[in-house]
Design a protein that fits this description.
The chain has 17 helices and no strands. It is mainly alpha-helical and about 290 residues long. Helix 6 packs parallel to helix 8, helix 7 runs antiparallel to helix 8 and helix 9 crosses helix 12. The relative contact order is 0.14. The protein has one domain: Hypothetical protein af1432.
Length: about 290
């Protein structure tokens, strides 16, 4: 599946197949602007801080999360400016993206979306851990993990009932093909939907491949999409699958696909699953 460019004539054609995609609630503007800022300069940090402060609801979410055990500052954070200065650009961007995805789901946080959310956070945590031991930027790897399934979130937002029924069918018959089932139900699968949203929202082009090709076989290249593929497989093996499917590996099988230089740094099954579950609980409670 090749990536489309933003000016591809196929974009309009595919959007016409699913008009509901055009009518989705917008991804939080603050998070979109953060994702568009690729340099870690002081001016970028100030810009992000100003954007957060201009959105009272989002600002409150950031402050709640900044004061949670997830961040674990020794003193209470009372302002967005204070949070921005203490967190720094990279951690603030990560936090804004995570809160942005959660906010995007809030209006229809069904069981299916909750599974998708937990899979995304688990994948992001694993992707960041992988990136510690290869040449991929850790912040970008985490962001890629958080956003790789945004197309699935979109489909579940379009019709929560239909997507919940799809998940139930997959659970009863996990050998079914997830993408084919989505195309049967929605006329489009979540990889294609994710690619269209990345272009519609004007996100950096790197996210086109990450959202649209994360289900493809491993390539053994050292890039962000490969990191997401590996992290998805391990997240599924740890019990954080978005949808039940027949190709879920055991923990050892999933970890065996990692490069040895990365694999040796991972903790055991129970320790890693507990670490991920704790972070998810903190984010959900914030």
């Amino acid at each position: 599946m090749g990536a489309l460019t933003a000016d591809s004539p196929r974009l309009d054609e595919q959007l016409e197949r699913l008009p509901a995609l055009e009518n989705l609630p917008p991804f939080p503007l603050v998070a979109l602007r953060v994702l568009s800022v690729l340099s870690g300069t002081d001016s970028s940090l100030k810009e992000i801080c100003d954007l957060i402060r201009a959105d009272p609801v989002f600002a409150a979410e950031i402050l709640r999360t900044a004061n949670s055990p997830l961040v674990a500052f020794s003193k209470e954070i009372t302002s967005v400016l204070q949070a921005s200065m203490l967190l720094g650009f990279r951690r603030l961007r990560r936090l804004v993206t995570t809160v942005g995805l959660r906010s995007y789901m809030d209006k229809s946080f069904t069981r299916a979306l909750q599974a998708c959310w937990r899979h995304s956070v688990a994948s992001a945590m694993i992707a960041e851990r992988i990136a510690r031991w290869n040449s991929i930027d850790r912040d970008f790897a985490y962001t890629a993990g958080i956003l790789h399934d945004v197309g699935r979130v979109a489909l579940a937002n379009i019709n929560p009932q239909i997507y919940a029924e799809l998940v139930d069918r997959m659970t009863a018959a996990p050998w079914c093909d997830v993408l084919r089932s989505e195309r049967d139900s929605f006329g489009i699968d979540h990889c294609c939907a994710g690619r269209l949203l990345v272009m519609k929202w004007g996100l950096p082009e790197e996210f086109i491949e990450i959202t649209s090709r994360h289900h493809e076989p491993l390539t053994h290249r050292e890039d962000a999409t490969e990191v997401v593929r590996l992290s998805c497989g391990l997240a599924d093996a740890l019990g954080f699958a978005a949808v039940a499917h027949s190709s879920i590996c055991t923990f050892d099988e999933a970890l065996a696909k990692f490069p040895e230089s990365v694999r040796k740094h991972f903790p055991g099954n129970k320790e890693l699953a507990s670490e991920i579950a704790n972070e998810i609980s903190v984010i959900e409670a914030a």
